[in-house]
Amino acid sequence: MHLTVVSSLDSQCREAATGRLGRTHANSAVVLHDLLDGSLVLRRVYRDGRLVERETTVLEHGCLSCTVRLDVVPTAERLAAYGFDHVVLGLPPGVAAGMAVAELRQGLSRPAVIDNAVLALDPADLDDHIWDRHTLFESGFTSMPQDDRTSGEFLIGEFGHVDTVMVYPGLGATLTGAHPEGSASWATGMELLVELAPHAAAVGTADPYRPGCFDQAETAARNRPGVVHVAASETPGSFRTVLHKASRPLHPGRFRDALPRLAAGTHWMRGRLWIASAPATRIAVQGIGPRVWLESAGKWLADSADVAPAGTSAGKPGPDVDSVLDWHPSHGDRGTVLAMTGRSEDIDARVIRGLLDECQLTEAEMELDFGVWDDPLELSDAL
Predict the structure, then answer these.
(1) What is the 3-state secondary structure of 226-256?
(2) pTM for this model (two decimals)
């Protein structure tokens, strides 16, 4: 059995994408799931564009993960037993493709191939989504009050998991009769999409679609906390990404002071930090629109002899791509790597690199024992 997983925030975009995907394979079924108020799951199954099943189920504990585990996975299992070769799963708005893929791999009793993980999106809304401070519940994307993710957090997370982004006018455009394709906001959103997800195929209505390109290993590598991927080449346009590296540990106080200026105006900031107050800890940093947070990503490989991959030892790079590419003879994979993506007029490479360089320990400070830093940067710090 082959599966294609489609995530979205917009039901109109999702239905357009699943409809097209259902026509790319022979003997396909398309399933649309929605989680409504009162823990009510609405399931619709289509074949050749015709509705063949419409059912509702009340979950005892209604949540997005329960919907996937208790209805999406069993439905995929049942359709495979009916003999469908390909099932397109249109997930409830706000359900992450990565979570659905993990549940499918764990819950299905028969082998299945994930052909594609697809995000359906109206690019004209992308810029606003990144900067929206409201939660998915507050914006009406999910029925779960405890879902405190913003639309920007959801979309950036999806960009890391999907191999394809299908672009269609959203529900708002349909309700107002607007035709955003070709508009300035559509063109700007497409530019931003390419900058935020350089690995993904951006597919419009008339564009060719390449099935079967989901790669679990690549997806896992992209989503390791602290990993930085940027476009291979920079094309002058509305958006740009600045990448900078610092080879010395950062002074915790100076970095705390610089963080708001580094994040100002950035749609997406991501990377890993080598902080003097926690020298053995690989700290991941991420900023999406108005939110910035830090988290521990474990030890540096150079400090992890007991967990180094087979065939390696501390002081030698292992199979981790970042370690191989950034390995240094004296400090191994330790170091700071930051990337900031934003509007070209808001992202000043000279200022960003200057700020980050000033956060590094000086020659005199490098002579001190790291234990003197009693001003640790709290991992819960956020803007």
Answers:
(1) CCCCCCCCCCCCCEEEEEEEECCCECHHHHH
(2) 0.91
